[in-house]
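**User:** My hope is that you can spare some time for a protein that puzzles me. I have put the entry right below:
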Amino acid sequence: MSSDKLMRLSFALKSPSKVIIEFGMDDGRLLKKLIEQDHDIKLDTNTSSVTYIGIEVDRKRFEAAESLMKNDKNVILLNASFEEILPMFPDGSIDQILDVLPDPAYIDRPNQNSWQSFYKVVYAKLKPAGLLRLVTEITDDLLEPVSDEAYNTWVQWLSQIFRSLGFTIRDSMDGPPAEYSTRCLTQFRGDAERIRMVTLDLVKDKNE
């Protein structure tokens, strides 16, 4: 990370502005939309100044996002893994985190032990009453349509895991927010029976 970005990041964390982060921002189109509309990740209009931070490990996708947002002043884009960046934030310093279609290594059942520890760190970095919005998907092993029973069981399992980490489930919604648009969301929406998605709004205890 450049010294300039380190300085801007340090300043943002010390300022009274709200801090909103997108993990794995891809080409940046969703983050750009939030910035243009002055929205937070719930699509509510911001009531205070905001610093948006986008993190993307893939160099080409990062460069596409950088080009898209080159004229935006209240955004910091980081070409790194979020596992590398997140420890740089003090505990209790982030207002909102957006995590759309994370890699299976960060959400699938076989990798549960490793990603649970990561989301414990996420919980610590959020401010009291801070929000993690997770949009993720389930597919059938044989690529058949996902039944309602399998989908509901999976959502209950996910919710239970995040509750065990301290989160409160503020909201659970079938599919992603209609206003959200990313390269992968567009692809997955085209196969909605075999790729079923959920949006979970996960909130940190306001007293922590």
Remarks:
- The chain has seven helices and seven strands.
- Strands lie at 18-23, 50-55, 75-78, 94-100, 126-139, 168-174, 195-203.
- The first helix runs from residue 3 to 14.
- The longest strand covers residues 126-139.
